[in-house]
Amino acid sequence: MTSARRRTRGRLPVVLVLPAVVGLAFLLVPLVGLLVRAPWDTLPEQLFSSSVGEALRLSLVCASLATVVCLVLGVPLAWLLARGDVPGRGVLRALVTVPLVLPPVVGGVALLFVLGRRGLVGQYLDAWFGISLPFTTAGVVLAEAFVAMPFLVISVEGALRAADPRYEEAAATLGASRWLAFRRVTLPSILPGVVAGTVLCWARALGEFGATITFAGNFPGETTTMPLAVYLALETDPDAAIVLSVVLLLVSVGVLAALRDRWISGPS
Amino acid sequence: MTLHADLRVGRAGFVLAAEVTVEPGEVVALLGPNGAGKTTALRALAGLLPLSGGHIRVGGQTWDAPPEVFRPAERRPIGVVFQDYLLFAHLSALENVAFGLRARGTGRAAAREEAARWLDRVGLAAHAKAKPRTLSGGQAQRVALARALATSPELLLLDEPLAALDAATRLHVRAELGHHLRDYPGHTLLVTHDPLDAMVLADRLVVLEHGRVVQEGTPTEVARRPRTSYVADLVGLNLYRGTAHGTAVSLDAGGTLTIATPASGPVHVVFPPTAVSLHPEHPTGSPRNAWRVTVAGIERHAHTTRVRLDGVPPVLADITTATVADLRLQPGDELWAAVKATEVHAYPS
Amino acid sequence: MRALALVVLLVVAGCGADSSGAEVGGAVDGRVTVFAAASLTETFTRLGEDFEAAHPGVEVVFNFGGSSALAQQINQGAPADVFASAAPANMTQVGDAGGISGAAVTFARNRLEIAVPKGNPAGITGLADFGDADAKIALCAEQVPCGAAAKRAFEAAGVTARPDTLEQDVKAVLTKVRLGEVDAALVYRTDVRSTGEVEGIEFPEADRTVNDYPIAPLAKARNAAGARAFIDHVRSDRGRAVLAEAGFDTP
């Protein structure tokens, strides 16, 4: 009874706390497993080996470029879905989430069907411009963007739909075109949603494996990102695979935590 | 440069069909109960909602005339003060006021200079850098007004501009708003459901019920000759301008009224017709205000009878049908009107 | 140790007796769980159907996957009766962990072949074309068996391959050829046979790429008799015919 802490509201309900704790454990225990099994003594050596550095650099660059692609295309798409007067919006909204439910390998094959050397579009890219996307770093960026974009679109659309459209009307009465109103009024007001979506999108792109290896293949320095390196290392040297995973984990957690502190300050 | 609007908007289960005219420098209040179509009319004038019939013309320019012409909001020279102001939360007060100037092509430096002038005019020069959420309700209202007026619009639209304020703030903001509206040379349309706001701020009232104009005229005309019970209830106010010296207010229209709470300087004095009692002789006892009046007209409404009385000052009284019978009221009868000082409210003007 | 070996021998002999009983039917029943290399998908599915038809009451359940992944699953305690690997190394991993019962036997051999898209648009003729910078080439990554085999072939041919991609498994390589995304690739002969959409080109150095497919019953088998009987079925004349048809060499 000497405790200085006093409860301002009743006890936390067990029906919420129990599943929450189980859920947290469910997410964290596999990570603990990874960390326990990691051969910490060889970690620094692996970390500074050129092939790991190369894969890590490629992963960060490709995930960031893919995120830029997603932002440039995804934010306007989210706006169209949330505010545009397009027929069949419900169907469009469902279609946008397709890459979420599609196994990524299938997504990669679908990209090959379209942008591959003999693909619907790719054959003309190749014939007219000499552009071939598979087996290139650009291909990695495309594959990652394809898989990651729904995360951004869904978050931004949610933020847009929660935003009060009357602010856009207020901007219109002040003489702002829809584009200016979007840029100067709507976008700043949904910034937290955009940042959250960007972070999710980047994280998804960073971990992308299936679509990348299927569409862009695997060649060191060109298309071998960390997840691909992890997968191949698992074939012969599981210890190395764990080290690679831990490196990817540390870097991504570091970046995400830094972003969070910078952009998503919780309600204080 | 008169504004002529024949507003016709059809929506599911609701039709607005109202004609409104506003002269330059005139303040017109669109008054009516919730759901009467006030906001629809305002949105149509703002260009946020296209007309389905009729027209909006200002001077030689047509803003809306379906099906050929529709000028969207961003291409109309308007300023709107919204009910909850809709200040942009991520912009400072100054940037909010400069927004319209920037959107209409004014350079950055010039826009900020002009915005600063407007903030100064509404007495908020010290709050130029403040974000809207740090402003009080009254301050936010003034920023919204400055933002709407900064672009020198031809038409100023005010949507329940005082509704979001608490009672105490309201008095001061109403008086200030009145000053700004008097200085503003363009057309002003004020949407409100508060008769006091309408009568204090507007030169002319347009009363809207079920999407139609049921009456229009100066506040005094409408109050003296309400055409429907709704208008009688709504606009049933005795309103005078005067100058207060302590508890005595000498009225511009002549006569003196005693108020309970001392005040000083120019005021509006208000009391409802139900506060007025009529007596055949000079009343004795508590009423602190009593003066001689002559019956000018008698109008019966659903629950009450409104009696128009000439005198110094002229006054409206709502009395029960039984009292009418008791007093055998006829136009031309001479009576005493009495109002308790506690029923008379004075607002700074 | 001798005593233990004797026991093992007796047990193996016992199993043998059981399986000989199985051949006349009746003694084998229940479920037989087979972990098999992905390259065996088509042949083992057929052999499983045959086996079920010959032994009413028996159900064969397959888990096809990469040999190394399967070996790891078995070592982590996955419930399996039979392991058929595409490489002896993975069988050794299980054997070293004490996971197999008795000795593994080689039941099939596979070798690499050049796969080109139908019509061979790039005019590939042999391994030398894999050094051409202009040709799009897909190979298996060196970490997986088909990649290691390809490396041996190039060493034997004295060719420096210039691949555009190093795929994680042979099926992924095959997909790239089928879609025409690459001009040539090295895959197993069985992979070429498995689809009508690619053409195979044999090359002399393929002898250096032969890899053995070992099969063994597992120590923790729940259905030891079934495991034995299935392995016998794979090694029977009928089994060898199915494997040969798919492009395997059968010892």
Keyword list:
heterotrimer, A: 268 residues, mainly alpha, MetI-like fold, 75% helix, C: 251 residues, alpha/beta, D-Maltodextrin-Binding Protein, domain 2, 2 domains, five-stranded mixed sheet, elongated, disordered N terminus
Task: Give the SSE layout.
The complex is a heterotrimer of chains A (268), B (349) and C (251).
Chain A: H1 14-37, H2 43-47, H3 50-83, H4 89-96, H5 98-101, H6 104-115, H7 122-129, H8 137-162, H9 166-173, H10 178-189, H11 191-207, H12 210-215, H13 226-236, H14 238-263
Chain B: E1 3-11, E2 14-22, E3 27-31, H1 38-46, E4 53-58, E5 61-65, E6 69-70, E7 78-81, H2 93-103, H3 108-121, H4 137-149, E8 155-159, H5 167-183, E9 187-192, H6 195-201, E10 204-209, E11 212-217, H7 219-224, H8 229-234, E12 238-251, E13 256-271, E14 277-279, E15 289-300, E16 305-311, E17 315-319, H9 321-327, E18 334-339, E19 345-348
Parallel strand pairs in B: 3-9, 3-10, 7-8, 8-9
Antiparallel strand pairs in B: 1-2, 1-4, 4-5, 5-6, 10-11, 12-13, 13-19, 14-18, 15-16, 15-18, 16-17
Helix pairs in contact in B: 2-3, 2-4, 3-4, 4-5
Chain C: H1 2-23, E1 30-37, H2 41-54, E2 58-65, H3 67-75, E3 82-84, H4 88-96, E4 105-110, E5 112-117, E6 137-140, H5 145-157, E7 165-167, H6 170-178, E8 184-188, H7 189-194, E9 198-201, E10 211-217, H8 224-235, H9 237-245
Parallel strand pairs in C: 1-2, 1-3, 6-7, 6-8
Antiparallel strand pairs in C: 3-10, 4-10, 5-8, 5-9
